[in-house]
Structures are given as structure tokens and as C-alpha cells.
Model the fold of this input.
Amino acid sequence: MNITEHTIDPWTSTDHDPHQPPAVGSDADAENIYADWDLEIEHHRAQLVTSLNTALTALTGAHTAVSALLSDQVYDVEFSEATTGEDVAAFITESLRLTRAAYALTQHVTDRS
Done:
């Protein structure tokens, strides 16, 4: 016995026009299958901006601390007389540069949207 499956062609359906937006009063979020996806993107973008701000604040504090350790006023021998202090300062400076670049790119993308 051969059973034919009945399917409905959405282009010939008479219950709606697929080229028109949802009618007034319809549940637009139910029609928009991307609503949850958009909310998730917004959430993670906000989380990224917040995390980058936190990183910039922490790195700025670290830069201030290592600068104080290398200064003549504090002069931490372990940091000042070996290459350790200069290396740490260079790593922090590079981290700040890269984090600022990541923040700027993130702002560019999120401001465009």
C-alpha cells in the first residue's frame, strides 16, 4: 500500500502572505525566530564590554603599582635592580595596549549595530 504524505506549501497557503510583516495584534516575538538569539548576542556583548572595562581598570592599577615599585621613592630592589621590573612593566603596557584595542573594536561593532 502506497501512502502519500500531505504537505502544505507555504507559498500557496491562504492563511497569510509570506511577503508581508505580521499583522497588527499578532505576537511579533513568536513570528521572530531570532528574538532570543538577538537577546543572547546583546547579553554577551554587554558582558564583553564589562569584562574589558574591568580588565582595563585592573591593568591600569597594575601599571600604577609597578611604576611605584620602580620609582626612586619606593625603589623595590627586586624590581628595580634586575630586569624583572622592566619586564613586568613591558608586559603590563603591552596588555593595556591590546586590551584597549579589543575594547575599541568591540565598541565599533556594538555601536554599528
Remarks:
- The chain is about 65% helix and 0% strand.
- Residues 38-112 form one domain.
